Amino acid sequence: MEPSVTADLPEKCSPCPEALLSLAAGSVLSVLQCPPPSPTLLASSLLLSQEAAAAATTSSVSTTTTQEHLEHEHQPQRPGLIHFLRNICVKAAVTELALVISLIYVDRLKKVLTSMARGDPDTPFKIILSALLVVKKFMEEDCVGLNRLFSKITNGLYTLRDINTMERSFLGLLKFSLFVTEEDVLGFIQSHQDELKGLDILKTSRSAVAA
Prior knowledge:
Blueprint: H1 18-29, H2 39-46, H3 50-56, H4 66-74, H5 78-91, H6 96-112, H7 123-139, H8 146-153, H9 160-174, H10 182-191, H11 193-196, H12 201-210
Helix pairs in contact: 1-5, 1-6, 1-7, 2-3, 5-7, 6-7, 6-10, 7-9, 8-9
């Protein structure tokens, strides 16, 4: 039996805190340089109106340093990516720990890509989708229909064949380096303490298992 797809849910229903979702979006956007998604892409993938999608791609802050410029370039994509990620986490029941492990995979991906690597407007969406899919399969025994579920979650943006291709490409780039220790998780959390604002992800995960 395939997992069910829930309706689009409000922010408070996400199993992952906003601080973690924001960190995830920033991490994915830093993997490689990509042009910002068009309002049409945002509207189709995030269930936003054309007006809201256009607003999400509009930037009004000037920058001076290179780092500030990069952050500024990423800012228009960030709200849309967070919304997309929130929907994935809700509809696929992604836990805080699963999202953290997916970001560890994303960090590993950064290390294998060259500084010249470039992506398409929707590459950040594909990266986080692939990472979460792989994590779900790595952590859970029952993965029947998971690729099809992820395709449905995107509301037709990505077909089942697209999802399968993303997964194979992601695994190939990582060379199937998927094992993550508790020390890896602790190290990631400690290195992002400011962004995570004191979240105790391992404690939350253990409590969920005990329940």
